[in-house]
Amino acid sequence: MQSTLPPEPQFGAPVPQTPIPHVLEFLARRRSTSAVMLAEPPPSQDELSALLRLAARTPDHGKLSPWRFIVLDPANKGAYADRLEALARSRGDERAAAKLAKLKAPPLGVAVVSRTVGGEIPEWEQVLSAGAVCTTLLYAAQALGYGANWITDWYAYDEEAKAILGLQPEEKVAGFIFMGTAKEAPLERERPVVNSLVTAWRP
């Protein structure tokens, strides 16, 4: 990745807007891999650093960076899952404990945390920017050849679970992006009929 990723443009430098057909080909075939089908190896540390740099290029009205990353690396993600499982079982919630399978299987995860900043930029736009970070990170990992999946589940919303992750009370999980090597190619799923979702404004 490091040898093929171009250097980051310097502030104020022109960034040419030229056609990139292979990006369109990627978008036309993009498909998430089920989290339980993600295995070793995950992106390397250098690859992950590059992926996070790409994700941080997301549109961000006001240049606020209203998001941050928490990396769930292979050495520590198991301990995080264990604490969530203990929380679920302490409540007698076996269903919540079972849902952790999607968190346990992938070797690497990144929590994208939404944190809105006061000022002129509407909160909604800041939240949307965090969602765009999730999308960009997901796409970048897949463009690198890894399987990836954007997950939210009870542990993204539960206050005690958020505290285990290290969130402040005002912060929210925009998504967990899980990454690894796909055990098998994902099958195409049903897609929306786009024409049924499009209208043209008329005066």
Give the overall average pLDDT: 96
| Total number of domains | 1
CATH architecture: 3-Layer(aba) Sandwich
Tell me the number of strands: 5
The N- to C-terminal Cα distance equals: 49 Å
- Structural category is alpha+beta
CATH class: Alpha Beta
Level of helix content?
25-40%
Note down, in words, how this protein is organized:
The chain is an alpha+beta fold and 203 residues long. It is built from 8 helices and 5 strands, in the order H-E-H-E-H-H-H-E-H-E-H-H-E. It has one domain: NADH Oxidase. The chain has helices at 21-29, 45-55, 77-90, 94-98, 101-104, 123-143, 154-157, 159-165, and strands spanning 38-39, 67-72, 108-114, 147-151, 172-182. Strands 1, 2, 3, 4 and 5 form a 5-stranded antiparallel beta sheet that branches. Helix 2 packs antiparallel against helix 6 (123-143) and helix 3 packs antiparallel against helix 8. The longest helix has 21 residues, at 123-143. The model has no long low-confidence stretch (mean pLDDT 96).
